[in-house]
Design goal:
Helix content: 10-25%
Strand order of the largest sheet: 2-1-3
Number of domains: 1
Largest sheet: 3 strands, parallel
Number of helices: 2
Strand content: 15-25%
Distance between the termini: 47 Å
Mean pLDDT: 83
Structural class: alpha/beta
Low-confidence stretches: none
Radius of gyration: 15 Å
Length: 89
């Protein structure tokens, strides 16, 4: 009898990357977070995506086998719609 295969749950938390080479138009999802999601799916995982804005609004982080946090500020300045994740967050 074959053992039941468990599907790993991967939670991706997008704290936003503001690399000028990766800027897009809202609703914007960075190519980096997309690559992580694609790798998780290719490995047979089930992906849950949460942005820092979703967490700021009170969404809970679900239990997961793997949690990936992607964030980074490379350019200081003002933001029109949202702020990248801070160190305190």
């Amino acid at each position: 009898m074959e053992a039941e295969k468990s599907i790993p749950h991967v939670v991706l938390i997008d704290g936003y990357i503001d690399d000028p080479a990766a800027l897009g138009v809202p609703p914007y999802i960075s190519p980096m977070i997309r690559a992580v999601a694609g790798a998780a799916v290719d490995a047979g995982g089930r992906v849950t995506y949460l942005s820092i804005d979703m967490l700021r609004q009170g969404h809970e982080i679900p239990d997961a086998d793997v949690t990936v946090l992607l964030s980074g500020n490379t350019v200081p300045g003002k933001y029109l719609r949202s702020m990248p994740m801070s160190l305190k967050e």
